[in-house]
Amino acid sequence: SASGGHGAAEGGAWTSHDARGMPDGQQAAAAAGLHPSPTAPPGRSSRGYMASEVPPRRRSSLGSVAEAAVEDEEPLVEPDSLDWVSPTNQAHDAPGMSLVRNPPGWLRKGRVSGEGSTLEPPAQQRLFGSGTGSGHVQVQFEDGWRDSPTDEVRQIFENIASGRSKFSITTQRGASVVDLEGPMGPMQTDPVSKKSRPMRIREVESEIESLAGSAEPTSPTSPKALMSPSGSHETLELQKGYGPQSRRGHASQLQLEVIQNSPHAVKCFEELFRNEEQYCGEWAVLYHSYSFAALIYEVHAAVAKVLFGFPSHRSPLPRLLVSEFAKTPDATSLLRRYTAEFASNKRDHHPEYRKVAISAMCSLVSLGPEASTPIVFMHGYSEKDVSFTGVLEDLLQSCLVPKGKVKKLAKSIVTLCEGHGLDVAQFGGKPCESGKSGHLLQIFIKRRLVDDIAYAAKPYGRLDEERHPLSQWLDGDNCTNHGQARIVANPKIFLSERCIKMFVASADPKFHGNRERFQDELAKMLRPIFGDSAAKERVAATIYGGVLPDWWKDDMVH
């Protein structure tokens, strides 16, 4: 039977409606569209293990009775419908308004770059609102952007923290009016001369990113990497000694039997294993399987490439709008909300949960619960025969694409996807030729950040106390082939390669081979839609929650 236990974002599990009566492993393989491997050892299923090898509490993941259903005894939830993609209020307002509605914690605390706090801390302490982040204001003059004096910045921050979008401040030249509501972005106007100048707010090193360390090593074995702030030489050597995460703890690799009939799948997994071997020193790794959300993730990546220099040739981007993480910026806040809001209301299938979190497995040879990484690779989790054209249009509106261009652009994107082999049947387009619409996102997280943005989860998103904290479990020489996780895919972190490195494998050989060229063409299509450099900067600030990260450079949009 179908299970929604692995269902945050693209997270419903594989189904076995047509496989009942088969042995456990054959049920799973048939559900994935595979056949038992002729090379599987006698007495073993094509999933690579015997039922007797799995502890009793885990065996429910092998058969037709899902562990989550056994634990919770209630109807299973439908697979993801992309209801987490919705047109936000910010999409229809002035770019500066998202900053007023959801000011960053450092701004509400009045933290000006280089100074301490001048305002009382917010009532709700959060990781992203209580650390070392700060900001500064710049105004554009004829000779370029200039930093505003500290006193003016403090006045601006105090007004925004009080919920004002249009207000007066005292400057060195007299009174000035700040307006965050204009369609051209924040402006600062001299009430006497009526001269208006563009204004922008820059965020200096977000709190969680600062924890990742300022050094970006070129390889895990470089001297810079071995002495980086994210771990001592001894710790890094220990992690490298443990080796790739998916092979730790003497984890059985027989699960890979199910992909042996697909040379392309075998090649993909070999590459993912090589990545694990390369990055296992400083980075833990999690795996997110998805299917019909691929188009949305790819558009996220292309937008981020155009506006932020995101390396979209390597991977898609699960989430894009920073403002949607205002209430749930990290794993601690997500667990808090889960207990207070979601535990009795759809759990990890709640749209507000899925808006910020994605489900993941912890190994390339995962046995469950609910999903096995090699099995779900081929088809992901798509099960609904519905058109999601409106979902794509909502996303484009959230990126401030002019309303009159949205429908035409959405159609052009779907056509481009078809040409490169991406399955867009759910968006009114064609399915991929191979029928294999699954994708696997490999997410490397800097080890010291794991517990900030991820937690060990049971089906439906409940905290798994046995594997908590997740970082301790992943840092050890432990077999990680059983257990789920949830990741808060905050774009502030996922846009930074100091914090996250991602790679992707697609089950369809055509799209997998074409993906890099596809991303180049998609970015080329989007670039003129966003307008000139000034317009692109406004879109970038809107996507980033009304501010620009300090690492953002003007030439990113030229």
Structure report:
- Helix 10 (294-308) packs across helix 19 (509-526), helix 14 packs across helix 15 and helix 15 runs antiparallel to helix 19.
- The chain has 558 residues and is α+β, with helices and mostly antiparallel strands.
- Strands 1, 2, 3, 4, 5, 6 and 13 form a seven-stranded mixed sheet that branches. A three-stranded antiparallel sheet has the order 7-9-12. The protein has a three-stranded antiparallel sheet with strand order 8-11-10.
- The protein has helices at residues 24-31, 67-72, 97-101, 105-108, 150-161, 207-211, 223-226, 233-242, 263-279, 294-308, 331-342, 351-354, 373-377, 389-398, 403-420, 450-453, 470-475, 491-494, 509-526, 533-543, and strands spanning 134-141, 144-147, 166-171, 174-179, 187-189, 196-204, 283-290, 357-361, 439-446, 454-457, 484-488, 500-506, 548-549.
- It has 20 helices and 13 strands.
Outline of this structure?
With 558 residues, this protein is an alpha+beta fold. Helices cover 32% and strands 13% of the residues. The protein is globular.
